Amino acid sequence: MSYINGKDSPRQTILIADDSEMNRSILTDMLGDEYEIIEAENGVEAVSILQKYGNSISLLLLDIVMPEMDGFGVLTVMNKHRWIEDIPVIVISAENASVHVERAYELGVTEFISRPFDALILHRRVVNTILLYAKQKRLIDLVADQIYEKEQQSGLMVDILSHIVEFRNGESGLHVLHIRTLTEILLKHLGHRNSLYQLPRTEISLICTASALHDIGKISIPGEILNKPGRLTDEEFAEMKKHTLIGAEMLKALPMHQQEPLIKKAYEICRWHHERYDGRGYPDGLKGNEIPISAQVVALADVYDALTSERVYKKAFSHEVAVKMILDGQCGTFNPILMECLKEVESILVEELRGDSDARASRRQMQNVAEELLRHEDLSASERTLQLLEHERMKYSFFADMSEEIQFEYTVAPSMVTLSPFGAKKLGLDEILMDPHNNPEIQVMMGSGTLRALSNELRSTTPEHPQVKYDHEIYIHGEKRWMRTIGRAMWSADEPPRYMGAIGKTTDIHDERTRIDALVQMASHDSLTGLFNHNYARERIRERMEDRQAGVFALAIFDLDHFKSANDNYGHMFGDKVLIHMAEQLRRSTRGGDIAARVGGDEFLIFLEYKEDAEAVVQRIFTSLEGTYEDFRISVSMGVVRTDAVGTDYDTLFHAADQALYAAKRSGRGQYRFYDDTMQEMLSVISPIDGSEEKPVD
């Protein structure tokens, strides 16, 4: 399958969906000089391409009989997602029975061409179809521009008028935006909660726009009343209440546009947004559902924003206090269903109002444009591509921020890394980094070795198995931390495939890795000396002998002579220091490949591989261990066994070395002895086979 070559290409794109490579090749040869061609060999692949490229596809040439999903299945999906409104389809098939042709047209195809076909006729129909849809799209754009301009001008005039009122009233310029937002939230939630109040999106939009005019009558109220810092007198309050009637009369007195839906809604809101559900509001004392739902919702929105905003006569209440005052009936009685809605949406109100801005109003205008276009039945008004792109962008941003992962994309040509905003901030880098392999900041952060290893891991993948997981260390703000990178190599569709780059994420696993390392250390090492413990050493020794079956090994066990006197005469803390000293001496005297461990108490073991003279190696180690620590003289007794003497079974080796240690102690201590057959009947010092932990000889 070939993909679009060059996103900036002015040529239009045709998708050919046919399971026959020969058919695809013929069509590509016919049309490839004029159009960009994408090929799909089955219906599933075609749907995937349509999902990916959207309106970038100018035409679909579709076969009916295909594996996995046939042509009718593709058309069904296109209808479900309304892609058929934007992407014309020409069916080219040998299945030309009338039932197939009729079904194809019912599913929205533009043309049905039977095989075999005339090349000239096919070419002409392709050109005509693409030109027709291109003209239609230009017409849609033109109408959309005109409607958007109309919406913008209408909204602008409403905003100007409402801001004049706010200016006289000393209110914040956000009041109108807040009322719109609160009204929209409440109306949408109300519709979900009660089917009696399910309003079309167009009517909700209309009410939200009209809500900006709710206090237009205040333009005639004297400024000294509007901006009085104290409580109004009864006479002043009576004057203030007139703004509802004044606003309604202003709208009613308009010389034209009386039948416009916006004017009708604005009239309802202006006159009745101070009515209350129990009939105790003004100016008409309406009660219950005598009050239009538009006025009921704006009334609640107005009260909430008035409570939470600072006014000349009061400080702002908190969100929590304002909601409680409304629910407790301190601001009048509202529709019980609206009260339930308020309780259910109160958790999102603060965040929604904090994000209120002209950008939100602009998005609302664009929504109105789309709805207006949909009312034109002769036009296809889908903005699917823009919506999908925005939807995907929002999803990506949300998940990227919430996951706290460093997400990245790397391209080979040009050599460039793009980081997610969170990743760039965490690493202290720019979001776009050119030539990362030679970038000094990345070199310092990752090190050339880590970067090269990760690159090699990705390049060693295949298109069938493109994913890698790589744990590594990097420096973040001077601190070295363990990270886990999971990447997916991107390969071209060429033959052979070319490595194009990678996408992936990097997660901080430092704390997890540190805990695991600590647990491994505890499980495998002696806590006092830091040497391997006996259990871990036993497994390592068995693995070594299994891996190197041709090798010749020796196991030595030694303990300290008269160590009990160190504890008795100097105390156990001193005894511990002697053991730590012995561990350090043991590390210095053994080679990197040797295994040294503390067996328990004052017993230690050494496992080593030798090639010629084992005794020379043992003699060197034995000599290095003797000496003094402070005033305490250190003497050791050691038993040694070779694998060529007893074999490679670990328990047998250990028991034999223990018997040799016993022989060394019986011979006067301060020496080492190699195991031989004469020691078979001797006791052992540690006795791992019979389970005894007693030391018959000190």
Looking at this protein, list some descriptive labels.
single chain; 698 residues; alpha/beta; Rossmann fold; Hypothetical protein af1432; Beta-Lactamase; 6-stranded antiparallel beta sheet; 6-stranded mixed beta sheet; 19 strands; 16% strand; disordered N terminus; disordered C terminus
Can you describe what's shown?
- With 698 residues, this protein is an alpha/beta fold.
- The protein folds into 4 domains: 13-141, Response regulator (Rossmann fold); 170-356, Hypothetical protein af1432 (Orthogonal Bundle); 404-516, PAS domain (Beta-Lactamase, 2-Layer Sandwich), CATH 3.30.450; 525-679, 2-Layer Sandwich (Alpha-Beta Plaits), CATH 3.30.70.270.
- Helices cover 50% and strands 16% of the residues.
- It has 26 helices and 19 strands.
- The strands form 4 sheets. Strands 8-7-6-11-10-9 form a 6-stranded antiparallel β-sheet, sandwiched between helices. It has a 6-stranded mixed β-sheet with strand order 12-14-15-13-18-19, with helices on both faces.
- A hairpin with a 2-residue loop joins strand 9 and strand 10 (479-491).
- Helix 7 (201-210) packs across helix 11 (261-272).
- The longest helix is centred in the first third of the chain and has 51 residues, at 119-169.
- It starts with 12 loop residues before the first strand and ends in a 24-residue tail after the last strand.
CATH architecture label name of the largest domain = Orthogonal Bundle
Q: Note the total helix count.
A: 26
Structural class call reads alpha/beta
**Rg result:** 42 Å
Oligomer designation: single chain
Strand order, sheet with most strands: 8-7-6-11-10-9
